[in-house]
Amino acid sequence: MTTETAQTQLVSHPWQRWGWLAGGVWLLFLAFPVTMILERHAGGGQRALGLVLVALFAVVYALGFVRLFRSDYPVPGAWPLLVVLVALIGGVATVIGTDAMAMAPFAVAWVAWSQPWPRGGWYAAGLTALGLLVLALAPGDDGVYLLPLLLVLGFSALMRVFDTFTERQAEIGEALAVVAERERVARDVHDVLGHSLTAISVKAELASRMLEVDQTRAARELAEVQELARDALAEIRSTVAGLRATRIEDELETARETLTASGITPEVVGDPDDVGVAQRIVLAWAVREAVTNVIRHSRASRCRIALGPRSLVVTDDGVGATGPEGNGLRGLRERVSASGGTVTSGPGPDGRGHELRVEL
Predict the structure, then answer these.
(1) Same domain, 202 and 254
(2) In terms of domains, do 119 and 176 share one?
(3) Quick one: how far is CA 73 from the chain centroid?
(4) pTM across the whole model
(5) Which of 84, 97, 260, 261 is the most exposed place for a label (fewest CB within 10 A)?
(6) Strands (DSSP E) along 75-209, which ranges?
(7) Do both 259 and 341 map to the same domain?
(8) Are residues 178 and 313 both part of a single domain?
(9) Mean pLDDT over all residues of the chain?
(10) Quick check: 149 and 127 in contact, CB under 8 A?
């Protein structure tokens, strides 16, 4: 696969391809410093310099938001890009003076969005305070850029809070789904065993009383106890096997649907019926966690799920691991380790993307 092809696959998801427009649309407001440069009675060289600097500012800002929507937090190269933006604002200021502060809200927005929350909010507030200090010290400034700075800071903070709240709500929803699944399994087991164990208890007690007065009846009751115990054991085995088989099949089907809905092409290899009964719950859990990570963090266009009798390998063509290991993967490691297995995570076979491998 060529680099160009890999890049095309990487940005196949609409939000990854066009999400930068959410920040780039505000570049229309650079019309204000452009107008000021053109209206100033400066030499042609100064006007050309100012226009070039504004154009470079727009390009750097747009490229930053392209990277923002294709990376995890913190965005790689966020601080060098901020330095470039501030330097360009300073360069424009040599042409139009403090009117170059019309470009400062862009730098504030970049800081707020390129860093994890709430750290990004504090950095944006600090940059806003610095901009306000510049305005306060500038001779003859009428404070016209005070409101835009504060509005951009407030809007960025509000959107980041909403974004963080949405992510945490999704995590809580997943945790509640796990609790609900555990409760459902507990109810199923209770329904299967409750009646049988009650009958066994009653008949065993009756048989113990009949041993001295009616051994024939006692023997009959004990035989029924044995039969009930065998039936109960068969039912619980059938129930547990059914739960496990349903879970891994359901997880694979859900994986296909959610990956497709996220713009990621799924490929599933292997038959769930070949998976050992004792391994199905753990591997089903691994499928769920691996696919969740692919959707949330990989920015991938393809995902391959290879299922074996005692193994699972999930590979994507995304950006690879870009941050510390999350709670979900740590929990999966603990669960697999308790089953005597191992989890390995790293780059894909060709050095691109990411691969999660579970061996039991």
Answers:
(1) yes
(2) no
(3) 11
(4) 0.42
(5) 261
(6) none
(7) yes
(8) yes
(9) 75
(10) no
Count of domains forming the chain:
2
Structural contact between residues 155 and 128, judged by C-beta atoms closer than 8 angstroms: no
331 & 212 share domain: yes
Q: Looking at the structure, do residues 175 and 322 belong to the same domain, yes or no? A: yes
Range(s) of the domain holding residue 110: 3-144
Highest mean pLDDT among 42-46, 235-239, 329-333: 329-333
Q: What span, in angstroms and rounded, lies between the C-alpha atoms of 294 and 297?
A: 6
Q: Of 161, 160, 178, which Cα lies nearest the Cα of 292?
A: 178
Query: Is 162 a member of any domain?
Result: no
Q: Within 13 Å of residue 202, how many CA atoms lie on the same side as its CB? A: 7
The amino acid at 177? A
> How many whole angstroms separate alpha carbon 212 and alpha carbon 218?
9
Q: Of 61, 151, 134, give the one whose Cα is nearest residue 100.
A: 134
Q: What is the DSSP annotation of 213-282? A: T-HHHHHHHHHHHHHHHHHHHHHHHHHHHHHHHHHHHHHHHHHHHHHHHTT-EEEEES-GGGS-GGGHHH
Segment 249-285, tens digit of pLDDT: 878 888 888 888 778 899 999 888 888 766 787 888 8
**74: helix, strand or coil:** coil
pLDDT at 196 over 80: no
What kind and span of H or E run contains 178? helix 146-210
